[in-house]
Amino acid sequence: MTDIVLDDLRQRVHAVLADNDPSTTDAVTFHRARFDAGLAWVYFPVGLGGLGLDREMQPFVDGLFEQVGAPGNNAELNGIGLGMAAPTILAYGTPEQQRRFLRPLWAGEEIWCQLFSEPGAGSDLAAVGTRAVRDGADWIVNGQKVWTSVAHKAQLAILLARTDPSRPKHSGLTYFICDMTDPGVEVRPLRQITGEAEFNEVFLTDVRIPDTQRLGKEGEGWRVATTTLNNERVSIGGRAMPRESGVLGVVARSWRDNPGKHTPELHDRLLRLWVEAEAARLAATKLRQRVAGGQPGPESSALKLSFARSNQQLSGFELELLGEDGLRYDDWTMVRPDRVDFTGRSAGYRFLRAKGNSIEGGTSEILRNIVAERVLGLPVEPRADKDIAWKDLSR
């Protein structure tokens, strides 16, 4: 970062603060002003919430706003919108779509969810069967989606649907923006092993989507979805984190607070987990630097894979360390939380919730294939269904 650029960013931040006192300005108004000043995503183009700068300058801007107690923009609730929908709209959206969706998304006015996975198309996402049929200037959508976070709060969704069943499964998909308030959208809670209903299943019945809400070309859905998934894996496993933070920080505190439960074997295992977590954190930093000038690639799968493995091993270690105290669970009440809290809950919650880390955002088995084939260059796994029309596949 040059001093000239940093000084310019400081002046822009101060100008926003001068006109929008954080202590008296409501969050939506404040974030609209921040977007208009190019300080939402500084690495986005001018006019779309950014200044066309390097991605690594974003933490500097965020830090300046945090220092003065600037309001939040529903980042925890709207992680799908901010981390997945926004970069996809930037990459594939028309100028009209970018102007329509990016500003209210950033300001927290509209919450987004992701309508990708289905009961018969989870790990094999390209097998989705939700159908979108052209009807004049609109598309009529019917199908079922599952494992949909915050669907009960969302106004909009990114949707992958099949528009041409006569083509191979990867080729007949199209990507849409779906209005979750459409009367044909039904959201039902899914209760998890934690007792909560953090996810949902979504039923789509004759949902009408204008063609103006299609992202990318017809039949280009898989390519667009890949952009979304790569950004999702960076948002899950590649976030900027200080040393010994997240679940590792909680487990390290538990270790220090329970000296009477230490054993040489547990000490050795904790050190190994600490080193692995630190290596993953540094790798995430390197990946963020590499994608500063463009979209993330298949390397993001390795970060998400490492995140899931680390969380599950650390939460299991903590439960073993705490013994019977770790088996106490705080609350089995069925609630629909706005966010996942890995660090503020009990050890039992962390242990149970971490089981989902190897499923959500891409199953660990599929991610290993991606890393092997697209990062390490190993031989591709044979796929007998690759060139067969989707309608002719066994289901």
Structure in words:
This protein is an alpha+beta fold and 395 residues long. It has helices spanning 3-19, 27-36, 58-67, 79-92, 95-106, 221-237, 246-257, 264-290, 299-322, 347-353, 364-375, and strands spanning 112-115, 131-135, 138-145, 156-162, 173-179, 185-190, 199-210, 214-215. The strands form 2 sheets. Strands 1-4-5-8 form a 4-stranded mixed β-sheet. A 4-stranded antiparallel β-sheet has the order 2-3-7-6, with no helix packed on it. Helix 4 runs antiparallel to helix 5 (95-106), helix 6 packs parallel to helix 9 (299-322) and helix 8 (264-290) runs antiparallel to helix 9. 39% of the residues are buried. The mean pLDDT is 91.
Brief summary of the model shown:
The chain is of the alpha+beta class.
Flag low-confidence runs: none
Distance N to C terminus: 54 Å
Instruction: Give the topology string: H per helix, E per strand.
Output: HHHHHEEEEEEEEHHHHHH
Say how many strands there are: 8
Structural class: alpha+beta
- Helical segment count: 11
Q: For the largest beta sheet, what order do the strands appear in spatially? A: 1-4-5-8
Describe the global form. Answer: globular
Biggest sheet architecture = 4 strands, mixed
Average pLDDT rating: 91
Helical content class: 40-55%
Please indicate the percent range of residues in DSSP E strands (runs of 2 or more).
5-15%
C-alpha Rg, in Å? 22 Å
